[in-house]
């Protein structure tokens, strides 16, 4: 437990959220995680859930500067030591270590050692790394070409995306089975799974190599991916979305898919400084600290005090009208850091991913006491054990971790163990699908 008398004051620097877990990077080189831990994604050396933020002891002294959650895995980037670490569920090679093994504690990705990594983006089962030289590497699942390597073969280790040779990339983003990137010149690229138009290329086709996207003649400065939609921001602060909109996650006032990026008219008079995409919802932060959300809201993940889906941006309100400095969407939950130094969360809480010490859903922001200036910052934060197994849980056959879904163009329902709700599994024609037994 952190000692308030001897430890320097801390603040939350970065946040990220996965399917059912959350992580935060604090000043003083502290990484903590909470929520679902069944696949080792919390990095504490076990598979237990954590209802409160818990320090990842294995990363002490590693000078971590960035953290990113995939669905059921986590990646951290260090400026010293061994570079990039990954842990959690290892199927399809998403951890980048050359095998399918799960890892319960952070391990360095050997193939990235020595590279100056600027950014990591994690999707459901794949990852992208952007170097300071503007090169992109990818690894993990690739059944729809989301790695951008020109094939549909998975990659167990990072490989360079050759299509970007000589092209300076500024930012990358990853969705469930698709990817996006923005160049230093403001050009948007999309590749991977495109069934809902989420690549923004005007059709529903997949792409196995990055392809240039035209966005209303504007230059883009920022991109984020939801599960099956894409959000980008222009140099003028305008927000464009493309892809799946069954739940209103595109924010255009309807529930119609868009095959090309379309501007969100409701945010026309605002300058957007950050965007984040969840499974079926979206968040946008303005330059003056106002937060807006829209899309699927079954668990209150939009944060507006009710559980109805929203097809237009709605402002999320905070106590004392606090302004927001950062936002992160998980699959069914959302987190935000305020300029006052407080961390809030809302949405699905079944595995403790909200960090409140309970498993209750919330439909409006609730402060995470252990990581907030107005709470009990650090006093309730525990540390994970320093005694770790030498390896992860080991490789599991797909038959043990998946239920094979028939190759039909129908929608199935699978029971999520540990949760009361039934989760829809989208099944696409002619695409072999697997449903994780626990998600």
TrEMBL record:
<feature type="repeat" description="RCC1">
    <location>
        <begin position="134"/>
        <end position="185"/>
    </location>
</feature>
<dbReference type="InterPro" id="IPR058923">
    <property type="entry name" value="RCC1-like_dom"/>
</dbReference>
<protein>
    <recommendedName>
        <fullName>RCC1-like domain-containing protein</fullName>
    </recommendedName>
</protein>
<dbReference type="InterPro" id="IPR051210">
    <property type="entry name" value="Ub_ligase/GEF_domain"/>
</dbReference>
<feature type="repeat" description="RCC1">
    <location>
        <begin position="186"/>
        <end position="236"/>
    </location>
</feature>
<dbReference type="Pfam" id="PF25390">
    <property type="entry name" value="WD40_RLD"/>
</dbReference>
<feature type="repeat" description="RCC1">
    <location>
        <begin position="29"/>
        <end position="80"/>
    </location>
</feature>
<dbReference type="InterPro" id="IPR000408">
    <property type="entry name" value="Reg_chr_condens"/>
</dbReference>
<feature type="repeat" description="RCC1">
    <location>
        <begin position="237"/>
        <end position="288"/>
    </location>
</feature>
<feature type="repeat" description="RCC1">
    <location>
        <begin position="289"/>
        <end position="340"/>
    </location>
</feature>
<dbReference type="InterPro" id="IPR009091">
    <property type="entry name" value="RCC1/BLIP-II"/>
</dbReference>
<dbReference type="Pfam" id="PF00415">
    <property type="entry name" value="RCC1"/>
</dbReference>
<feature type="repeat" description="RCC1">
    <location>
        <begin position="82"/>
        <end position="133"/>
    </location>
</feature>
<feature type="repeat" description="RCC1">
    <location>
        <begin position="341"/>
        <end position="401"/>
    </location>
</feature>
<keyword id="KW-0677">Repeat</keyword>
<feature type="domain" description="RCC1-like">
    <location>
        <begin position="116"/>
        <end position="371"/>
    </location>
</feature>
């Amino acid at each position: 437990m952190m000692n308030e008398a001897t430890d320097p004051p801390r603040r939350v620097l970065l946040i990220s959220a996965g399917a059912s877990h959350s992580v935060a990077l604090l000043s003083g080189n502290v990484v903590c995680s909470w929520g679902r831990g069944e696949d080792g994604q919390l990095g504490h050396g076990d598979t237990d859930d954590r209802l409160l933020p818990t320090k990842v002891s294995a990363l002490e002294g590693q000078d971590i500067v960035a953290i990113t959650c995939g669905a059921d895995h986590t990646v951290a980037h260090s400026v010293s030591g061994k570079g990039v670490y990954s842990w959690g569920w290892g199927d399809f090679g998403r951890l980048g270590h050359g095998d399918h093994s799960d890892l319960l504690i952070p391990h360095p990705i050997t193939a990235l050692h020595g590279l100056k990594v600027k950014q990591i983006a994690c999707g459901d089962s794949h990852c992208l790394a952007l170097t300071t030289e503007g090169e992109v590497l990818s690894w993990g699942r690739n059944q729809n070409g989301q790695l951008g390597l020109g094939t549909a073969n998975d990659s167990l280790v990072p490989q360079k995306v050759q299509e970007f040779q000589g092209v300076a990339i500024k930012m990358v983003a990853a969705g469930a089975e698709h990817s996006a990137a923005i160049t230093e010149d403001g050009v948007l690229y999309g590749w991977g799974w495109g069934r809902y138009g989420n690549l923004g290329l005007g059709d529903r086709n997949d792409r196995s190599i990055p392809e240039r996207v035209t966005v209303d003649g504007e230059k883009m400065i920022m991109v984020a991916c939801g599960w099956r939609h894409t959000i980008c921001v222009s140099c003028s602060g305008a927000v464009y979305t493309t892809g799946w909109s069954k739940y209103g996650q595109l924010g255009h006032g309807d529930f119609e898919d868009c095959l090309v990026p379309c501007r969100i008219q409701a945010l026309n008079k605002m300058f957007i400084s950050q965007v984040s995409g969840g499974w079926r919802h979206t968040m946008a932060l303005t330059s003056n600290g106002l937060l807006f959300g829209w899309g699927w809201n079954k668990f209150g993940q939009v944060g507006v005090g009710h559980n109805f889906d929203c097809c237009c941006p709605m402002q999320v309100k905070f106590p004392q009208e606090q302004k927001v400095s950062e936002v992160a969407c998980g699959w069914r939950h959302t987190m935000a850091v305020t300029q006052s130094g407080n961390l809030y969360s809302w949405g699905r809480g079944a595995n403790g991913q909200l960090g409140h010490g309970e498993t209750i859903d919330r439909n409006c922001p609730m402060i995470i006491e252990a990581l907030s200036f107005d709470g009990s910052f650090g006093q309730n934060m525990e540390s994970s054990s320093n005694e770790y197994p030498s390896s992860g849980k080991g490789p599991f056959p797909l038959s043990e971790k998946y239920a094979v879904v028939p190759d039909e163009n129908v929608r199935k329902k699978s029971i999520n163990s540990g949760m009361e709700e039934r989760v829809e599994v989208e099944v696409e024609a002619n695409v072999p699908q697997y449903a994780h037994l626990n998600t």
